[in-house]
Amino acid sequence: xDTINDFGLKQRxxxxxxxxxxxxxxxxxxxxxxxxxEPMSAxxxxxxxIAGLYEQFKxxxxxxEQIYIGIDSFIYYSEGDIRKCVAPDIHIVFGVAKxxxxxxxxxxxxxxxxxxxxxxxxxxxxxxxxxxxxxxxLKAIGVQEYFIHQPELKKPAEFRGWRQxxxxxxxxxxxxxxxxxxxxxxxxxxxxxxxxHTHVRLLRPYLPDGTPITTSLEEHHLKKAAEARAETAEARAExxxxxxxxxxxxxxxxxxxxxxxxxx
Length: 264
Known about the structure:
Elements: H1 3-14, H2 44-60, E1 67-71, E2 75-76, E3 85-86, E4 90-94, E5 105-106, H3 107-110, E6 116-120, H4 126-130, H5 132-141, E7 145-149, E8 159-164, E9 170-172, E10 181-183, E11 188-195, E12 200-206, H6 216-263
Parallel strand pairs: 2-5, 6-7
Antiparallel strand pairs: 1-4, 2-3, 4-6, 7-8, 8-9, 10-11, 11-12
């Protein structure tokens, strides 16, 4: 099986379908701060998790130019009120142009809100992430799904998600037997795996059929493995050609000997 091409077929099959937003791409609006004094990630554990998941999302959604992925940047959700602002670790927006990149995301200007938000728990923000941010994201902003995850392996595992139900309420998602959650908005399944060499509990995305979305390093290894298999198959084919030529030569030699003996 050609693993890479097979994944490309599945990627197109499972990619969400959505309408285009009714606003316009907005890189920056004067008067709305786009940075603060906080570092991008709380710890190396968070940095490893954020960078890894962002890369997987960026590579997976690359085939659709109307999907924007924000990382540790501001979302302003009330025009004229700079206090109505959040900065999730990762947010995904459907129906808006992927490029140009934004300094912040303004929901009223773009004409839509993120479909999914991810926060990775830290000591400073964990309480807010579990409580008040649920309402802010799903009610005040209109996000469809909100997820929190604890990436630090030495701390208790915690992966939770909430979504809006059809009546406008908020419901917490029910994990499966492996602790995973399915995102209806993204049409992706998520579960974490323990990486003991980095001490990170890494949240990873999978296609609905269980196919993992690879990192660039994993993709590189897959390509190398595919090339090795192709080289092996080519070498075997060459060996088979040589073997057949040798057999044919031996048969031709045998026929020549029989013909010679018959003449004598």
